[in-house]
Design brief:
Elements lengths: L2 H19 L4 H5 L9 E3 L5 E3 H13 L2 E3 L4 E10 L2 E9 L2 E3 L20 E10 L8 E10 L14 H4 L22
């Protein structure tokens, strides 16, 4: 197992995860996470979800509430791999519109009419363990929360999200591994 192969495996999971978010493709999403109840998610709606069954139930519910109208634009800010653990820090535009009466179901995660305003940040924690003890990379934790408005000055510095660009920061060249396209391309 080389560092190059670990990086490729993790980036493939990252790509599958974000591509599954488009149209909330549950079978693809399920391939990213460990078996059983090991997985923990802090959803952008502010609530925790435990294990792949709860996550699948949430997504089935969201299928009636959200329409993710395009592939999310995700920019990786950091990817760190150390032994059997890795983490990714990213920012994204999550292009969603309401499909049902509840939308996101949360006051924590507001849906904006301008799709580019649906901005989020995420941390992905990976472990080389498939939940059954096999040495296969899986995402064990995902934490997502809304980003501030793009033109809101960053306290103590005054720069904005627009100034630095999605996923940008000091010394950062963002990395995008999700593909561009439409649902019909899948």
């Amino acid at each position: 197992m080389s560092l190059e192969q670990d990086r490729a495996d993790i980036l493939k999971l990252h790509q599958d995860w974000w591509e599954a978010n488009h149209r909330l493709k549950i079978p693809l999403m399920q391939t990213v996470f460990p078996a059983g109840e090991s997985y923990l998610m802090f959803n952008a709606n502010g609530h925790p979800y435990f294990g792949i069954d709860e996550k699948s139930t949430l997504w089935a519910w969201y299928q009636g509430q959200l329409n993710v109208v395009a592939f999310p634009e995700v920019e990786i800010m950091r990817l760190t791999i150390s032994g059997d653990m890795a983490w990714v820090g990213a920012e994204a535009i999550f292009p969603m519109k309401p499909a049902g009466d509840v939308g996101t179901g949360s006051v924590t995660w507001e849906m904006h009419e301008n799709l580019d305003d649906n901005r989020i940040r995420a941390t992905e924690i990976y472990q080389r363990d498939d939940g059954e003890g096999n040495p296969v990379w899986k995402m064990w934790h995902f934490h997502c929360s809304p980003l501030p408005p793009i033109d809101e000055p960053r306290p103590a510095f005054g720069d904005t999200g627009r100034d630095r660009g999605l996923g940008g920061g000091p010394g950062i060249t963002p990395l995008r591994v999700t593909r561009e396209g439409t649902w019909d391309d899948v």
